[in-house]
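To fix ideas at the outset, we first show an illustrative case, written as a sequence plus integers encoding its fold:
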Amino acid sequence: MNNLSIEKFIEGIPKIELHLHIEGTFEPELMFQIAKRNNKSLKYNSITELKDAYSFNNLQEFLDLYYAGANVLIEERDFYDLTWAYLLRVKEQNLVHTEIFFDPQTHTDRGVSFNKVIKGIYSALKDGEKNLGISFKLIMSFLRHLDEDSAFKTLKEALPYKDWIAAVGLDSSELGNPPSKFERVFEKARAEGFLTVAHAGEEGPAEYIWEALNVLKVNRIDHGNHSLDDERLVKKLEELQMPLTLCPLSNLELKVVHDLKDYPLKEMMDKGLLVTINSDDPAYFGGYMNENYIGVANALDLSKREITELAKNSVKASWLSQNEKEKLLKEIEKYHQKN
């Protein structure tokens, strides 16, 4: 067996990402480039000034900056370039499959057509599959701070692209916007054949996770940190083997936890929960997949076996076919045996 350091081990292991907002991969350099191309001004004079603004006290502060950045995305090519830049970066991190969120309302509310948004993103993902060997699923998120009507309108716009979209999700400002607010939209989405996921229990209470399970009938919970506040919920999640898509560096940056040493990942693993590691909005939170894995591995003193289990959990929680899952699980195990 090679005596690889834990960092090197993490860098080389095949990985899957299940919680990634494509608008959250907007690196400052690309943001300035696209802003210039579209004659859009940013309220920051330089890349350094923009990066200095990436210091958040809570989810809302981050969202304000996130939406300001998204404002410069106008043409199909912009969405293509954004997605392609993400794929090139994660290719270097041994990512083999990604299931990404996009937020159409962030763009359609500014007068950018749904068609431009999805075509740009989807064609980059197809090129990534063909040229980089990264397979994908696309998840359309509803913005929970907007009303039900707006979500229904977005769902209607998505129907012609049903073959491109695997699932619908729920993101944005969590507190005061419980999953139940979108019960009817999700019911309609499920009837149309979409899988469902929802952000729940990041800043919101355990009750929101119950609602995501019972009301929205989700296939995965995004974040789910506050599930630990409710023992009955923990038992339920364990029994269902309901995937939780944790985002360590995001939680640290948004003060959901104040130190990665207090990150609940290990406790969740010990309780038999199906937890996965993801990057959320990596351009804003200081790291893509490797950085997230390395951050928690060092803070919680994770072993190579535990890292391997986490990588396998992402495969199990993904929407790949059974055959693809089995092939990848073998590959990951083989990598662990060798290193």
